[in-house]
Automatic annotation (TrEMBL):
Native source organism of the sequence: Candidatus Jettenia caeni
Superkingdom of the organism of origin: Bacteria
Membrane topology: Multi-pass membrane protein
Keyword list, A-Z: Cell membrane, Membrane, Transmembrane, Transmembrane helix
Matching InterPro entries: Multi_antbiot-R_MarC (IPR002771)
Transmembrane region(s): 44-62, 83-102, 108-129, 150-176, 188-206, 218-242
Protein name: UPF0056 membrane protein
């Protein structure tokens, strides 16, 4: 048991280091990634580390841990495993359908890339700001009688909206719509699948992880990531306004 606890602590520490190192290395929208494709230089709006950061913040395992523990508090390991697998499958399929359908609809409506990026920045900023403000609001008492846990929870509320958030879907659609070739879309889907694998592992070990790191640690991490979300949203808005010629850079 002690070895297992030590192993989980090491895993969570490495995961936190990975998240913050990716955030620190994120080039964001002011330093696009450039790669060679068919003899031409293709300039991408976001780098792969930046996309991974967005998915970790909006579709990642940090916000899934506590809700999953609450949903499966009085259940056995077999039920938790089934629930985690079904929720991961549904979430992945939902994201893929939304990604391909959403980006096709946006392109068919002839919406410009700056307009899409500006919309994404505003959505990200408002949602992240709301999450931060909720930390200072008075706690809400839920006086309703908890229902018996069933596998139907894999659809709602676990997959939607706990794992697959509305703003996460919005960012995913924006990334797919602004991808300039099929290779980039494959890379985005690959990062999405990696994020879903992290979600699955987090749910499978959720109760053990929460016992080791505690709720306070998650709250602190959530506060830090919430502030980073606000900053990323503002950065997207500013850089889009600069590209549209509505704002000038100040050196």
């Amino acid at each position: 048991m002690k070895r297992m606890s030590f192993f989980l602590v090491v895993i969570m520490i490495l995961f936190h280091i990975l998240v913050f190192s990716v955030i620190a290395q994120t080039t964001s929208v002011n330093q696009p990634q450039t790669t060679a494709s068919s003899g031409q230089q293709v300039q991408y709006i976001l780098s792969i580390p930046a996309i991974f950061t967005f998915f970790i913040l909006m579709l990642g395992p940090i916000k899934v841990l506590v809700p999953f523990v609450k949903m499966t508090r009085d259940t056995d390991t077999r039920f938790r495993r089934k629930l985690a697998l079904i929720a991961t499958l549904i979430s992945t399929i939902g994201c893929l359908v939304a990604a391909f359908m959403g980006q096709r609809i946006l392109k068919s409506w002839h919406i410009s890339i700056p307009a899409i990026m500006l919309a994404g920045g505003i959505i990200l900023f408002l949602v992240a700001l709301q999450m931060i403000m909720q930390m200072y609001s008075s706690p809400h008492r839920d006086e309703t009688t908890p229902s018996t846990p069933t596998l139907a929870m894999a659809v709602s509320p676990l997959s939607f909206p706990t794992i697959v958030t509305p703003y996460g879907i919005a960012i995913l659609i924006i990334l797919m719509a602004t991808a300039q070739d099929a290779v980039r879309q494959v890379e985005i889907i690959g990062v999405l699948l990696a994020t879903m694998v992290l979600n699955l592992l987090t749910m499978l070990f959720a109760h053990r992880i929460l016992k080791v790191i505690g709720v306070i640690t998650l709250q602190i991490l959530g506060s830090v990531l919430g502030v980073l979300q606000v900053a990323l949203g503002i950065e997207m808005i500013i850089q889009t306004l600069i590209k549209m010629g509505l704002m000038v850079t100040v050196s």
